Amino acid sequence: MKIPHLGLFSRLLILFAVTTIIISICIALGSFAITEQRAKIFISERQTQLYEMLQQIAENPLDKEKLKADARNNRVSIMVKRGTQLYSTADNFPEFSALTAAAQPIGNLFFSKVGSKYFLYASFDDTSVVVTSKIANLIVYPEWLILWPWIVAILVLMASYYVLKRLLNPIGQAIESAKRISEGDLAYRITVHPKTELARLTTSLNKMAADLQKLFQSKNEMLMAISHELRTPLGRMKVSLALLQQNEITADLTSDINYMNDLIGQLLEGERLQQGSRVLNIATYYLPTLVDDVLSETRLSERVEITSALPEVALRVDVGRIKFVLRNLIQNAIDHATSEEKVKLSVTITEPSLLISVTDHGPGIPTDMLEKVFTPFFHAEDINHRSTDGVGLALFLCKRIAEAHDGQLTVNNTAPHGCQFSFSLPISCIAAFE
Ligand SMILES: Nc1ncnc2c1ncn2[C@@H]1O[C@H](COP(=O)(O)OP(=O)(O)O)[C@@H](O)[C@H]1O
Ligand SMILES: [Mg+2]
């Protein structure tokens, strides 16, 4: 048999209906249920009253119609045994001998459990009267069973929680997908689609991510192509300028061309780094030599103080790009230094990372701008107070380079003034640790 396709609404409706019915039954049973112990106490408290009722039936002549009516009115079943004569209002009474065998006296009455049912009876001369409650058979439980309705209710609630979670799972997936897309992970796709109308939501999100990915890709391709195409005429202009007689104007023009060249180079690098670790050219390089190479570049070495001995390890990194990071962090620190105090460079290995930090004594960065310094073209100072004429892409690229190496680049201000850039690489970048 094929189960008809049900929408989310119908599924939820069925779930709630079934749960409500089962829980209501369980609550009713749980509220009416009493233990065998309490049932006996109940009987012993009403002993005389019950005995008199049974006695009345026993003393009267056996009137089947009246017995039937009594049984119906009191919601009980009655069995009367007079000598060899036997009459019962229901046919599920056990043998009288079975009743007597299990009998437990409560005053003049007897309480007896046969099978799963409870009976109350009394004997008078040649007559015995047995009653059993139609409901009591459902609600008198042995001690250990008294909690079952509540346990079932809890199990049903747990089951419906599980079903509900499964039904609403696609919403969680949709939220995750939206989050990943907003974080820029356009390759993320929802893999499992529900059989309800929520499938439209999950497939639409997948389609949206695919469309966005295509859009960004073509935008990037366009940017790369334009940047690339601009480089050739810029190169030609530079050569032509060099052939002219040098004066102030040619110097300005050369500086502008250099700026544009840098800008294009960094834009292209930013696009390349978007692919993460795939673009890295990993090589093994001795760490102290790497630092030395960067410091021996013009202007840098005499303004930098290495605060602790450099770890004598070899790194497996993209040497050119790591040098770019180090060079830019040190250059920024020097550019923003207000005093002659040296910029501090320290390299330490503290598992799980290798930490390079560059600390300066400049003005620091306003707290609300700390995270923004890593966004493209961001300058904390306004145009008239810039300490550099940089493009504003260096820190953005440094962060991408760190992330491509599975590392991090963070910044925080130091007391009383200045800031510290911390560049961490995973310990696996150290050749000896591999
Ligand atoms: N050591 C520093 N102290 C204060 N501000 C800094 C420091 N390093 C970077 N910044 C701020 O971050 C901005 C971005 O830096 P960067 O990406 O190197 O771009 P650029 O140097 O081209 O301006 C800088 O314009 C500056 O406002
Ligand atoms: Mg800079």
From TrEMBL:
Q: What's the name of the protein?
A: histidine kinase
| GO cellular component terms listed in the entry, alphabetical order | plasma membrane
Group of enzyme by EC: transferase
Q: Give GO MF terms, alphabetically.
A: ATP binding; phosphorelay sensor kinase activity
Domain Histidine kinase stretches: 225-429
Spell out the SUPFAM superfamilies in the cross-references. Answer: ATPase domain of HSP90 chaperone/DNA topoisomerase II/histidine kinase, HAMP domain-like, Homodimeric domain of signal transducing histidine kinase
Pfam families, per database record:
HAMP (PF00672), HATPase_c (PF02518), HisKA (PF00512)
Q: Which reaction does it catalyse?
A: ATP + protein L-histidine = ADP + protein N-phospho-L-histidine
Provide the transmembrane region boundaries: 12-34, 146-164
Per the record, membrane topology reads:
Multi-pass membrane protein
Q: Superkingdom of this entry's organism?
A: Bacteria
Q: What is its EC number?
A: 2.7.13.3
Intracellular or extracellular location(s): Cell membrane
What SMART domains is this protein classified in?
HAMP, HATPase_c, HisKA
